[in-house]
Amino acid sequence: MLLASTALRRLAAPATIGETAIQVAQQGRTVSFAIAAGPLPGVLAAYGQATGFQVLYPSDIAQGVFSPGVTGTLAPQDALIRLLAGTGLIARFVDPDTVTLEKLPAQAGNAAVLDPVTVQGGLSRDPGRSEGTGSYTTGSTDSATKLNLTPRETPQSVSVMTRQRMDDQGLNEIRDVLDQTVGVSRMQRGPLGSDGDDVFARGFPVTNYQVNGIPRSTVYGFDDSISDTAVFDRIEVVRGATGLLNGVGEPSASVNLVRKRPTPILQGYAEGQIGSWNRYRGEADLSGPLTGNGRLRGRVVGAYQDNDSFIDRLHERKKVLYGVLEADITEDTTWTVGVEYQKHRSDDASRAGFPLFYADGTKTDFSRSHNSGARWAYFMHDNLTVFSELKHRFGDGWTATLNVERNNREYDGLLGYGARGSLNRDGTGMGIWPGRWNSDLEQTSVSADLNGGFDLFGRRHDLMAGISGYYAKREGLDYPLWTIPGYDPSIPNYFTWNGSIAQPTLNPTGRSQTDERQVVAYAATRLRPTDALSVILGSRISRWEQIEKSSPNAGAGSYSKRSENGVFTPFAGVVLDLTDIWSVYASYTSIFKPQNLQRDVSGQSLDPLDGNAYEAGVKAEFFGGALNASAAVFLIQQDNLGEADPGRFAPDGTQAYRAVKGAESKGFELEVAGEVMTGWQVGGGYSHTSIKNADGQRMMTYVPRDTFKLFTTYRLPGAWDRVMVGGNVKWEGDVYTGTGARPYDRDGYAVVDLMTRYQITDKVSATLNLNNLFDKKYLSSVQNYGYYGEPRNVLLSLRATW
């Protein structure tokens, strides 16, 4: 309410130059610039990286604008004047480290000018910010090492899904973002809110999620893949092992969700969407200063979505609300507090698809609309997060940051899905798997980090050090699963079944609890022996503990404790600049991950994963960072990898796994992201992964070895510059599952999408996304049951900005 009333007052009162410009004390700071001429978004990204300033501007005013660049040792103010020369834009400093751009008044001629300001150094609150840049890449990322590095300076493969690209493709869920990310494969096996999706990278499951760099627990229920994207500025995916910042985890990838922050200028948007299968969505975002001096800023984001599905009867809806305040306590200290709430629910929902085979061993052929869920089955996830960040900027570029977060969740799933038994030709032989999952979860996380530069042997180097820890708990009632005495789960005729079946009575059988604690210390430094050579060395010491308890209504309870103390995770990386554009790199880290979800046929958790991960590659940075490209090769060696044990189940009825010794994953990845030429953005690449056991046999055969993804948009020139057109291609190679008499092969497939946007006015635009243009029928998963990908569908979005 405070933000809205402030916004209305500011909209009602005409702004003056005196209100906009901020006078800052001159300290004689100069910076060495070597920014080549090129498209303005990339030039500004390079400028922000060189100065530490945050440059904010509406994306439309930079589209198609070319900058002459800037070279030499200059004051940041003078460099900004040069790189804006001839662009028709004016820059204003709204605080010591934030610059805004706007169109130059017509009467002022064609010269780039600034209000009278003097400049002092500062650190951007979010140097990797993608919102408002109009770009498909970012100039800075710290998700791999917590050192603020450009993608080219980072000795690992990093993909960044920017705000602009998420908006252009209409990606409203994290799982959809991952589905479009290079080197990541998503196998959908259930609706929103279920645990029916699997995400893989480099042959291994993706289980490491972070929000603003704070790791989520690996206890069941903390997965953020269903989160809505409305509250996030960008999604950063670091492929490969990320033990330096996660401590425990798979050598697949780490997904860091970076929240939107308040802005020093008033901005906002309201958007409505309508699409196939009765999809309706409303989203709004308002941000800006709450006081006249701009020292208190706020932001509020809300979204609501309601939709059916191409699957019969399935209905989904979600609510999102996010609010954040940012206050400058002193000139050098910023305090941020916020709250995020998301609720997701799916009704008439199944967590599996349909049987792949008849009882006689021949393949089935179901329609894409087939729903194997009972009418009373549902999934619900409720997520409330409160967070706080205190950041202090010392002299000489050093910062100290304290983060505290409290995450409370609830998941509730009433299970009833027709995947039990063997399907006969007459429709008999099938039944439902009934049960209920319901738990409350909480996680309290604290981290403290120190980041800055130091001089040694006449050269400047970087250092990061920190400590962090979390306590996570899952607690809930246990309900009957899979087999319920006195309940008949059989389906008379699977072909004509419409989900109608008696709902079982599910009384609690007891209570169970899982507690997980992790305390770690980590540090990393980037040493610069020469201008062209960077060496990054880091390590992490972890203490991890997990306790599981159960208290059944009848019989004896159980208690188990697993812990690992003093786990040492090293990291080493080297980057060598060959030219101003090209670099080569290599990196190494070790792997450690306790396994609590994957159990063998006796119900025992598999031993922890351990091994080593190696990566090497080439990176390039074109047009001052507007376009980034990379090529990488990798090798992952791992023991105790959990692989599904076909046809065998743990005592609780879940899939049983077996530990595989000597698993090895190797492959390569190619990626490009950013602006190729004025108005032409691209993002995508190719990946190949081969994972085998010690005997050389292929593993994870249900995960595609080869994928290709490419999305591109182009803003038409001249009189057609209000029109943007785009297209997307996603191709996955063949997969198979099963052995002996029942192998199931799925050929490779490609899906083509189209999009177009029309800028109706300077503030209003309409976007049309046409997905699966050729209505390709394909299976998104063949792991245990079949599940189809979405047929052809359309999404129309209307957005107004201010």
Q: How much β-strand is present in the residues?
A: over 45%
Question: What is the tally of helical segments?
Answer: 8
Main β-sheet: number of strands, strand sense, barrel status?
22 strands, antiparallel, barrel
Radius of gyration: 27 Å
- Say which CATH homologous superfamily of the largest domain is assigned: TonB-dependent receptor, beta-barrel domain
**Which CATH-level-2 architecture of the largest domain?**
Beta Barrel
**Mean pLDDT, as a whole number?**
87
Domain Secretin/TonB short N-terminal: 53-104
Region (Disordered): 118-157
InterPro entries: Beta-barrel_TonB (IPR000531), Beta-barrel_TonB_sf (IPR036942), Plug_dom (IPR012910), Plug_dom_sf (IPR037066), Secretin/TonB_short_N (IPR011662), TonB-dep_rcpt-like (IPR039426), TonB_sidphr_rcpt (IPR010105)
Subcellular location: Cell outer membrane
Written description of the protein model:
There is one protein chain. With 802 residues, the chain is mainly beta. It folds into 2 domains: 1-124, Phage tail protein beta-alpha-beta fold (3-Layer(bab) Sandwich), CATH 3.55.50; 280-762 and 773-801, TonB-dependent receptor, beta-barrel domain (Maltoporin, Chain A, Beta Barrel). It is built from 8 helices and 44 strands. It has a 22-stranded antiparallel barrel. The radius of gyration is 27 Å and the shape is globular. The protein starts with a helix and ends with a strand. Residues 1-27 and 107-124 have low confidence and may be disordered.
